[in-house]
Design brief:
The chain contains ten helices and ten strands. With 278 residues, the protein is of the alpha/beta class. Helix 6 links the parallel strand 4 and strand 5. The structure holds S-adenosylmethionine.
């Protein structure tokens, strides 16, 4: 059964990158009136109380959102992300970290739709308590469930694929899910988060994703930590976007060096931004 709980990691540097990219994409999708479908194939609990036991155990948010959220010198994409976090912490104390469903919900309009998949029973219960009837919630496998939703009736859609990668099969399932999704809905915007680890699966994933996306992609990677001698631990993370909206690259070109400087270990921090436009 699934052991991963996002509450242990909520608000860490990987979430900062993921959610900054997600909000940029959603802002660009909202530039057109026509509604779009937002799907989160791995939604998590919705939002996280940072004072609670799981978040406090490793306190990863302190090296992520906690290190940034009082800053007023962030480049626009990060400033928009920090403003979104502040909306959930209006009294000036960082108590709540909104996960991807909460951040997206705050940006979607009446004409947009949201579908959230979550397999872990406890996180699904939390999601249901938080969203009730305000979203379409599915306690199902997100890789499989996505199929039935594509193409969306409006032919506009954003899909966040954010597995925990606790199972090695997640790497091949990401690729299989995208291959299928692109045959059903080639013009969708797909965002894939992945961990940067000392493993072959993780280091090969960006190259394998590029091979799937002839119509255009963007790859952003933020390295914050040095490799550990035992070979375990997160070095950083990446976001791979298929069919990136216009302007995303420029926004991230300003954001990534700033994030690397503020969140990365000195001498180790680096970032990658590359893109292919057909
Ligand atoms: C990294 S967390 C999601 C975090 C969330 N997207 C966010 O950014 O706030 C991954 C979640 O996927 C769930 N999960 C794992 N395998 C799944 C599957 N096959 N389908 C749907 N959910 C799954 C886990 O229980 C976990 O809550």
């Amino acid at each position: 059964m699934l052991a991963y709980r996002h509450a242990f990691h909520a608000g860490n540097a990987a979430d900062v990158l993921k959610h900054t990219v997600l909000l940029e994409v959603l802002a660009r999708m909202a530039a057109k009136d026509k509604g779009f479908l937002y799907v989160d194939t791995h939604a998590g609990a919705g939002s996280y109380r940072l004072g609670e036991r799981m978040a406090q155990r490793l306190a990863e948010y302190e090296g992520g959102v906690g290190a940034l959220w009082r800053r007023d010198d962030a480049p626009p994409a990060v400033a928009a992300y920090l403003a979104a976090i502040r909306e959930f912490n209006r009294d000036g104390v960082l108590r709540v970290y909104p996960g991807s469903p909460r951040l997206a919900a705050a940006r979607l309009r009446e004409q947009d739709q949201m579908v959230l998949f979550e397999l872990h029973p406890s996180d699904y219960r939390a999601l249901r308590a938080e969203f009730g009837a305000d979203a379409q919630l599915r306690p199902e496998d997100g890789f499989n469930g996505l199929k039935a939703l594509l193409p969306p009736p409006t032919r506009r859609g954003v899909v966040l694929i954010d597995p925990s990668y606790e199972l090695d099969s997640d790497y091949t399932r990401v690729l299989g899910c995208l291959r299928d999704a692109l045959t059903r809905f080639a013009t969708g915007v797909y965002l894939v988060w992945y961990p940067q680890l000392q493993s072959l699966e993780s280091s090969q994933l960006p190259r394998r994703l590029k091979a799937l996306a002839p119509a255009g992609w963007l790859h952003a990677q933020l390295t914050t930590d040095a490799p550990r001698a035992d070979g375990f631990g997160l070095l950083g993370s990446g976001m791979f976007v298929i069919n990136p909206p216009y302007g995303l690259r420029d926004a991230l070109a300003a954001a990534l060096p700033w994030l690397a400087a503020k969140l990365g270990t000195a001498g180790v921090a680096r970032w990658v931004l590359d893109a292919h436009e057909p």
